[in-house]
UniProtKB/TrEMBL annotation:
Pfam families reported for this sequence: Lactamase_B (PF00753)
SMART domains: Lactamase_B
Residue span(s) of domain Metallo-beta-lactamase: 80-248
Organism: Chryseobacterium oleae
Name under which the protein is recorded: Glyoxylase, beta-lactamase superfamily II
């Protein structure tokens, strides 16, 4: 064959290789995915995984919610971390392993109880306390999913978690074993990588860290976007759900989410008004009022001033008067 004829086949060979690579990445169970080229991060630095060793003393559970839907928890309080787990005959879907030592147990427990592999792990956002342990499932063959904004902090913060296999923009749908799971990014809220996960057949929702179950938002709102948080709660309140897992503590109801929204909006408006009156921090935090119901919420004594501080920072950075 002449050199000229060989060269004429070259574009065709390249096309075949490209098509083959695309086919290799297609996943018939997913709608809306983007596949991550993990080779770009092969040698990226990671920090020590402080929860990297098995801990027999860590309390762990996997409890049925309804049908094929379960909730995993670890720790006490009554649950330090939690997430939903869907079991199908084609494999399991796990949300937020949370800690490596819990993930080791959860992977084995799913295999022991149901004899199916974990097919997908959904990370609700790129914070170590929820994404930790994802590498345990990835090493066993699961694909790790996160919103596209979660990839950069996982690499940039050197988190000791899995580099995601799959990212998405607005929505990703999983159809597995006759079940449907909808993963959505509503808006930046508790981080700009936050996903909510809807299980329409079970009227269940994963609303990690954005939702609360008669508990105070954590600390000073950590990685906080006020407008997007309210937008996400507004979206949740329109859903036909009767079971909401918030990633910690106990399950929530739509009434809990409504009360949480009222609290955050009230806190924002009070702080904004006091700042506009010219009050300093030392004056302002003493003048924020809480309802008697909110004072009964879990963590109120520890978190109320921190909540004011977080909202004070947000308000101060998102206003401008005549200057």
């Amino acid at each position: 064959m002449s050199a000229k004829k060989k060269l004429s086949y070259f574009p065709l060979i390249i096309l075949i290789l490209l098509v083959g690579n695309v086919k290799a990445q297609l996943d018939p169970h997913l709608s809306g995915p983007e596949f991550v080229d993990k080779s770009l991060y092969d040698n990226h630095e990671v920090l020590e995984d402080i929860f990297g060793k098995p801990d027999a003393g860590l309390e762990k559970t996997l409890i049925k919610v309804k049908g094929n839907l379960y909730r995993h928890t670890n720790g006490t309080l009554p649950a330090l971390h939690s997430g939903l787990v869907l079991i199908t005959h084609e494999g399991a879907i796990v949300i937020d392993p949370a800690l490596t030592q819990a993930a080791i147990w959860l992977k084995d427990e799913i295999k022991k109880k149901f004899n199916v592999p974990v097919k997908y792990v959904i990370l609700t956002h790129a914070h170590y306390d929820h994404a930790g342990g994802s590498q345990v499932f990835q090493q066993a063959g699961a694909k790790i999913i996160i919103h596209k904004n979660g990839l950069e902090p996982i690499i940039g913060e050197k988190l000791p978690v899995a580099v995601p296999d799959i990212i998405y923009d607005k929505q990703l749908t999983i159809k597995l074993g006759g079940e449907t799971v909808i993963v959505k990014h509503i808006a930046p809220s508790h981080s700009n990588s936050m996903s909510v996960v809807l299980f329409p057949q079970y009227k269940a929702l994963q609303l990690t860290d954005v939702g609360e179950s008669k508990t105070m938002p954590y600390n000073d709102f950590l990685d906080f976007y006020y407008d997007g948080w309210i937008e996400t709660l507004d979206w949740a309140l329109k859903q036909d759900v009767d079971y909401i897992d918030v990633g910690h503590y106990t399950m929530a109801t739509l009434d809990d989410i409504r009360e949480e929204r009222e609290y955050i909006v009230s806190l924002h408006q009070q702080v904004l008004n006091l700042v506009r009156e010219g009050q300093s921090w030392d004056q302002l935090y003493r003048n924020v009022k809480f309802t008697e119901e909110v004072k009964k919420w879990g963590g109120f004594d520890a978190m109320n001033k921190l909540n004011i501080l977080g909202m004070f920072r947000w308000v101060s950075n998102h206003r401008r008067g005549v200057w």
